[in-house]
């Protein structure tokens, strides 16, 4: 499977790239703003495309020839932005143009329907909400949402749980566990179909 990982230089993006390479089922392409932040031992094993997620042509060209997409979009600031919503619109437009069906993306547990939100939220949350509203209404795409709580640096613990529309355990999860869940699910066709159009909370059980 030819897999495009968007945001491959972030914490979850790096973990996902590493896990996809370990899996052995994927021909990995990383879409990044700058390639200099990718580990050197990774770049000789993957194809790297530099571009801007807010540029529709950049991401559309990167999606051409892929079989699936994992979006690890993330902002390093908490201010107002359109990175998530416009970025996702560009991703979906590229997938539609090139007939790519499968998309896994990372959101956050506070955006799960019915999950209580903290009383004060930074401006960035408004754009993440716009992103999730857009993608969850794009039913021609086989999207799956990973909605983690607090994300910690760390490898896969091999002891985590994911649950539809709920948080199955502690309010913490390692980037490695998120990566393992997405990559393992994507590599299994039956699991992809089972997970389609659902939002999953995920917890590392021993943290």
From TrEMBL:
<dbReference type="InterPro" id="IPR016040">
    <property type="entry name" value="NAD(P)-bd_dom"/>
</dbReference>
<feature type="domain" description="NAD(P)-binding">
    <location>
        <begin position="7"/>
        <end position="188"/>
    </location>
</feature>
<protein>
    <recommendedName>
        <fullName>NAD(P)-binding domain-containing protein</fullName>
    </recommendedName>
</protein>
<dbReference type="Pfam" id="PF13460">
    <property type="entry name" value="NAD_binding_10"/>
</dbReference>
<dbReference type="InterPro" id="IPR036291">
    <property type="entry name" value="NAD(P)-bd_dom_sf"/>
</dbReference>
<dbReference type="InterPro" id="IPR051606">
    <property type="entry name" value="Polyketide_Oxido-like"/>
</dbReference>
